[in-house]
Design goal:
Blueprint: E1 3-5, E2 12-14, E3 31-33, E4 40-42, H1 55-61, H2 91-104, H3 117-169, H4 173-182, H5 188-214, H6 217-226, H7 233-251, H8 254-263, H9 270-283, H10 287-305, H11 309-314, E5 319-323, E6 326-330, H12 331-341, E7 346-353, E8 358-365, E9 368-383, E10 391-400, E11 406-414
Parallel strand pairs: 5-11
Antiparallel strand pairs: 1-2, 3-4, 5-6, 7-9, 8-9, 9-10, 10-11
């Protein structure tokens, strides 16, 4: 078993895996190992992607042909030329040679007539020369095997070193376990490092599972503090982002949206937060809007104090949804109201707003709003009729249209 890169997505996987867990391409039974360099690749490729050895030739050249041995038959008599033959010497020459040999070396006896020692020595030398090619071939074969083993061992060590560097950068427990299963004879330091790395990943995964089960922002923040570089770090930040957005959206105030944007300026909901803050701010009464409403009603009651029916009518819409209980009231109804409350016996009238406004803003179109307004007023009256009340207080319920005019106006007397 070896660790390979998926040709589809480059994900680190085991060559024994049925399919790539990342992209789903088939793996088991679809790969082979190059006999030249040990690289693992798909069997349908024409050549090894590492050393470019043709795939088909691997099938035919995987077996090394046997070494041809030199002929070693020693039963045949060596072939000799005419010059190599030793003719039997004449009697005279034998007697002379024997005498000479006896005089030169008295201790040795004469050689038996049938013993040709010179001819036997030459034959033995030729037989020895017949072994030389065999010995040389064996030596060459041993050297070749040694060289091949050296390259194989080097390639295996290089492959282990490469896979070690890969798995130490991986966060997939299956990749690390595959290395441990494949390289059981790897250096002890490498195996210890991989085992420690695998243990930390398993612990990390368990802590992540606990944080998700708890489902709180605090648990996720604790996980990130302990494992800032975990493969789950990005997912943890996304979950925190979602939780903060949920809180901001539920509160639905400019402050809540601003707080979210401060914590997540590039968050997944940053655009929605900007839109939400803008929409809420549009609903929030601005100081200039409050000033407009205050001025409108102060002018309206001043017009009543001064009996200026025309000015009061100009502050109202042509048709009001309601005016003092009358539906579809007109400007004439406003003028008639002022005329009625100024009775003949009244010498002076003063309406004063208590400035206790309660204003709600509603959108009625693009950049158009109407306002529901509640406030109280106090009426002081001077009259020649002793039975006429001199002071009264009223609760006003009114509507201001998008044209900044009164579109409804009703009041209820408050008993003091």
């Amino acid at each position: 078993m070896a660790i390979i890169k998926c040709p589809e997505c480059g994900h680190q996987i085991s060559d024994k895996a049925p399919v790539c867990p990342n992209c789903g391409v088939e793996i088991a039974g679809k790969i082979i190992r190059c006999p030249n360099c040990g690289e693992v690749y798909f069997a349908n490729e024409e050549m090894c992607p590492n050393c470019h050895r043709p795939t088909k030739s691997n099938m035919t050249s995987s077996h090394t042909p046997p070494i041809q041995k030199a002929p070693t038959d020693t039963t045949d008599v060596p072939f000799t030329t005419s010059e190599d033959r030793v003719l039997p010497p004449s009697t005279t020459e034998n007697t002379q040679d024997h005498s000479a040999a006896s005089s030169q070396n008295p201790s040795k006896g004469s050689m038996p007539p049938g013993d040709h020692s010179g001819n036997g020595s030459s034959s033995t030398k030729k037989k020895k020369r017949n072994y030389v090619p065999l010995i040389v071939g064996i030596i060459i074969a041993i050297i070749a095997v040694g060289i091949m083993y050296h390259f194989y061992s080097t390639a295996k060590n290089d492959k282990e070193e490469q896979d070690y560097e890969i798995v130490m950068k991986s966060s997939d427990p299956t990749v690390l376990q595959s290395y441990l299963d494949t390289y059981q004879d790897a250096p002890e330091a490498h195996r210890d490092s991989v085992q420690n790395h695998l243990m930390k990943i398993k612990q990390n995964n368990q802590e992540w599972t606990n944080a998700v089960m708890r489902g709180s922002k605090g648990a996720l923040e604790d996980y990130l503090q302990n494992y800032p570089h975990s493969i789950h770090a990005a997912e943890a930040r996304n979950k925190i982002d979602s939780l903060d957005w949920r809180d901001a959206h539920n509160e639905n105030t400019p402050e809540s949206y601003q707080e979210y944007l401060k914590a997540h300026p590039q968050g997944a909901f940053a655009d929605l937060a900007q839109e939400g803050m803008k929409e809420v701010q549009q609903k929030v009464l601005q100081p200039e809007e409050r000033q407009m409403i205050s001025t409108l009603f102060r002018t309206f009651f001043q017009s009543i104090n001064s009996k200026d029916e025309s000015q009061a009518a100009d502050l109202a819409e042509n048709v009001m949804s309601s005016f003092l209980g009358k539906a579809n009231a007109t400007k004439e109804d406003v003028a008639s109201f002022i005329h009625k409350i100024w009775k003949n016996n009244i010498t002076n009238m003063n309406w004063r707003i208590n400035n206790d406004y309660n204003i709600k803003k509603h959108k009625v179109g693009d950049d158009k709003y109407e306002y529901q307004v509640q406030f109280s007023v106090r009426q002081n009256v001077s009259s020649t009729d002793p039975s006429q009340p001199t002071q009264s207080q009223y609760r006003i319920n009114a509507t201001v249209s998008e044209n900044n005019k009164i579109s409804s106006f009703n009041m209820i007397r408050i008993i003091l």
